[in-house]
Protein backbone atom coordinates (compact mmCIF):
# COMPACT_ATOMS: atom_id res chain seq x y z
CA UNK A 1 0.00 0.00 0.00
CA UNK A 2 2.88 2.33 0.79
CA UNK A 3 4.31 1.83 -2.75
CA UNK A 4 0.96 2.70 -4.34
CA UNK A 5 0.76 5.89 -2.24
CA UNK A 6 4.31 6.91 -3.22
CA UNK A 7 3.52 6.16 -6.86
CA UNK A 8 0.43 8.46 -6.72
CA UNK A 9 2.48 11.24 -5.14
CA UNK A 10 5.15 10.85 -7.84
CA UNK A 11 2.52 11.05 -10.61
CA UNK A 12 0.97 14.18 -9.06
CA UNK A 13 4.42 15.77 -8.72
CA UNK A 14 5.24 15.08 -12.38
CA UNK A 15 1.87 16.37 -13.50
CA UNK A 16 2.21 19.69 -11.66
CA UNK A 17 5.83 20.28 -12.59
CA UNK A 18 5.16 19.41 -16.25
CA UNK A 19 2.38 21.98 -16.48
CA UNK A 20 4.55 24.59 -14.80
CA UNK A 21 7.40 24.01 -17.23
CA UNK A 22 5.12 24.22 -20.27
CA UNK A 23 3.72 27.53 -19.10
CA UNK A 24 7.18 28.94 -18.43
CA UNK A 25 8.42 27.92 -21.88
CA UNK A 26 5.74 30.08 -23.51
CA UNK A 27 6.56 33.21 -21.49
CA UNK A 28 9.10 35.80 -22.47
CA UNK A 29 12.04 35.99 -20.07
CA UNK A 30 11.29 39.15 -18.08
CA UNK A 31 14.85 39.39 -16.78
CA UNK A 32 16.05 40.66 -20.17
CA UNK A 33 15.56 44.33 -20.91
CA UNK A 34 14.28 45.89 -24.11
CA UNK A 35 16.12 49.13 -23.29
CA UNK A 36 19.00 50.20 -25.46
CA UNK A 37 20.10 50.82 -29.01
CA UNK A 38 18.88 48.18 -31.48
CA UNK A 39 19.74 47.65 -35.15
CA UNK A 40 17.08 46.22 -37.45
CA UNK A 41 18.71 43.14 -38.99
CA UNK A 42 15.82 41.33 -40.67
CA UNK A 43 12.20 41.79 -41.71
CA UNK A 44 9.85 39.08 -42.97
CA UNK A 45 6.47 39.91 -44.46
CA UNK A 46 3.49 37.64 -45.20
CA UNK A 47 0.00 38.60 -46.18
CA UNK A 48 -3.08 38.29 -48.32
CA UNK A 49 -4.41 40.95 -50.66
CA UNK A 50 -8.07 40.66 -51.61
CA UNK A 51 -9.57 42.87 -54.30
CA UNK A 52 -13.36 43.25 -54.35
CA UNK A 53 -15.42 45.02 -56.95
CA UNK A 54 -19.04 45.90 -56.25
CA UNK A 55 -18.94 43.62 -53.19
CA UNK A 56 -17.68 40.52 -55.03
CA UNK A 57 -14.15 39.09 -54.65
CA UNK A 58 -12.43 39.70 -57.97
CA UNK A 59 -8.82 38.73 -57.13
CA UNK A 60 -6.88 37.26 -54.23
CA UNK A 61 -3.09 37.26 -53.91
CA UNK A 62 -0.62 35.82 -51.41
CA UNK A 63 2.25 38.09 -50.45
CA UNK A 64 5.60 36.97 -49.05
CA UNK A 65 8.91 38.72 -48.72
CA UNK A 66 11.90 39.71 -46.70
CA UNK A 67 14.37 42.50 -46.24
CA UNK A 68 17.23 42.82 -48.71
CA UNK A 69 18.81 45.96 -47.23
CA UNK A 70 18.44 47.94 -44.03
CA UNK A 71 19.99 50.92 -42.32
CA UNK A 72 17.23 51.18 -39.71
CA UNK A 73 17.72 51.36 -35.96
CA UNK A 74 15.73 52.19 -32.85
CA UNK A 75 16.69 53.35 -29.37
CA UNK A 76 14.35 52.53 -26.47
CA UNK A 77 14.91 54.81 -23.49
CA UNK A 78 13.40 54.90 -20.01
CA UNK A 79 12.14 57.69 -17.67
CA UNK A 80 10.36 58.78 -19.75
CA UNK A 81 9.73 55.80 -22.04
CA UNK A 82 10.71 57.35 -25.35
CA UNK A 83 12.03 55.93 -28.57
CA UNK A 84 13.95 57.40 -31.46
CA UNK A 85 14.35 55.60 -34.76
CA UNK A 86 15.82 56.34 -38.14
CA UNK A 87 16.69 54.62 -41.37
CA UNK A 88 14.60 52.43 -43.62
CA UNK A 89 14.35 48.92 -45.04
CA UNK A 90 14.14 47.63 -48.60
CA UNK A 91 11.80 44.66 -49.03
CA UNK A 92 11.55 42.16 -51.84
CA UNK A 93 7.90 41.00 -52.01
CA UNK A 94 6.59 38.18 -54.19
CA UNK A 95 2.91 38.25 -55.13
CA UNK A 96 1.31 34.95 -56.09
CA UNK A 97 -2.23 34.45 -57.35
CA UNK A 98 -4.48 33.69 -60.29
CA UNK A 99 -1.70 31.71 -61.96
CA UNK A 100 0.80 34.57 -61.87
CA UNK A 101 3.91 35.38 -59.82
CA UNK A 102 5.42 38.81 -59.58
CA UNK A 103 8.35 40.08 -57.52
CA UNK A 104 8.98 43.71 -56.74
CA UNK A 105 11.33 45.68 -54.51
CA UNK A 106 9.88 48.29 -52.18
CA UNK A 107 12.37 50.82 -50.86
CA UNK A 108 12.20 53.20 -47.91
CA UNK A 109 9.89 51.15 -45.68
CA UNK A 110 9.71 52.50 -42.16
CA UNK A 111 8.48 50.17 -39.42
CA UNK A 112 8.79 52.56 -36.47
CA UNK A 113 7.89 56.25 -36.35
CA UNK A 114 10.84 58.63 -35.94
CA UNK A 115 9.96 59.76 -32.42
CA UNK A 116 7.41 58.67 -29.83
CA UNK A 117 6.70 56.83 -26.62
CA UNK A 118 6.58 53.15 -25.79
CA UNK A 119 5.17 50.90 -23.09
CA UNK A 120 5.70 47.23 -22.31
CA UNK A 121 2.94 45.00 -20.96
CA UNK A 122 3.86 41.30 -20.63
CA UNK A 123 4.91 40.16 -24.11
CA UNK A 124 3.69 43.28 -25.92
CA UNK A 125 5.36 46.57 -26.76
CA UNK A 126 3.02 49.45 -27.61
CA UNK A 127 4.58 52.22 -29.71
CA UNK A 128 2.74 55.57 -29.86
CA UNK A 129 3.40 58.55 -32.09
CA UNK A 130 1.20 61.32 -33.50
CA UNK A 131 -1.94 59.91 -31.86
CA UNK A 132 -1.47 56.41 -33.30
CA UNK A 133 -0.51 53.32 -31.29
CA UNK A 134 0.80 50.06 -32.76
CA UNK A 135 1.13 46.81 -30.82
CA UNK A 136 4.15 44.55 -31.36
CA UNK A 137 4.22 41.06 -29.84
CA UNK A 138 7.59 40.00 -28.42
CA UNK A 139 8.09 36.57 -30.00
CA UNK A 140 11.62 36.19 -28.61
CA UNK A 141 13.84 38.20 -26.27
CA UNK A 142 17.47 37.62 -25.31
CA UNK A 143 20.05 40.12 -24.05
CA UNK A 144 21.19 40.82 -27.64
CA UNK A 145 18.14 40.07 -29.80
CA UNK A 146 14.43 40.92 -29.98
CA UNK A 147 11.98 39.35 -32.42
CA UNK A 148 8.78 41.41 -32.78
CA UNK A 149 5.62 40.56 -34.68
CA UNK A 150 3.01 43.04 -35.86
CA UNK A 151 -0.28 42.12 -37.51
CA UNK A 152 -2.31 44.64 -39.43
CA UNK A 153 -4.91 45.34 -42.04
CA UNK A 154 -5.11 48.19 -44.49
CA UNK A 155 -8.04 48.93 -46.76
CA UNK A 156 -7.71 50.96 -49.94
CA UNK A 157 -10.86 52.27 -51.62
CA UNK A 158 -11.09 53.41 -55.22
CA UNK A 159 -14.51 55.00 -55.53
CA UNK A 160 -14.11 55.75 -59.24
CA UNK A 161 -14.07 52.01 -60.06
CA UNK A 162 -16.03 50.88 -56.97
CA UNK A 163 -13.03 48.68 -56.04
CA UNK A 164 -11.71 47.89 -52.56
CA UNK A 165 -8.39 46.26 -51.72
CA UNK A 166 -7.93 44.68 -48.30
CA UNK A 167 -4.37 43.78 -47.28
CA UNK A 168 -3.99 41.62 -44.16
CA UNK A 169 -0.38 41.10 -43.13
CA UNK A 170 2.09 39.95 -40.51
CA UNK A 171 5.50 41.59 -40.22
CA UNK A 172 8.28 39.93 -38.22
CA UNK A 173 11.06 42.31 -37.23
CA UNK A 174 14.42 41.17 -35.83
CA UNK A 175 16.45 43.69 -33.82
CA UNK A 176 19.98 43.09 -32.52
CA UNK A 177 22.36 44.97 -30.24
Provide key terms for this protein.
eight-stranded antiparallel beta barrel, Porin, 14% helix, mainly beta, 177 residues, disordered N terminus
Protein model, in words:
- This protein has one helix at residues 2-26; strands at residues 36-53, 56-70, 73-76, 82-86, 89-97, 100-109, 115-121, 124-129, 132-142, 145-158, 163-176.
- It has 177 residues and is mainly beta.
- The protein has one domain: Porin (Beta Barrel), CATH 2.40.160.
- It has an eight-stranded antiparallel beta barrel.
- Strand 10 and strand 11 form a beta hairpin.
- It is elongated and about 50 Å long.
- Residues 1-27 have low confidence and may be disordered.
Set down the secondary structure blueprint:
Layout: H1 2-26, E1 36-53, E2 56-70, E3 73-76, E4 82-86, E5 89-97, E6 100-109, E7 115-121, E8 124-129, E9 132-142, E10 145-158, E11 163-176
Antiparallel strand pairs: 1-2, 1-3, 1-11, 2-5, 3-4, 4-7, 5-6, 7-8, 8-9, 9-10, 10-11
Question: Briefly, what is this?
Answer:
By secondary structure, this protein is mostly beta strands. It has one helix at residues 2-26; strands at 36-53, 56-70, 73-76, 82-86, 89-97, 100-109, 115-121, 124-129, 132-142, 145-158, 163-176. 14% of the residues are buried.
Amino acid sequence: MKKVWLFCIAILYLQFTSCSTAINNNRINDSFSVLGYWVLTEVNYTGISEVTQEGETALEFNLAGSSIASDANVALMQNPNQFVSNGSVSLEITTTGNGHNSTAIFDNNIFFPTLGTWERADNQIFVSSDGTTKAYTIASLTPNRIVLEHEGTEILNDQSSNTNTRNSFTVTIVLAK
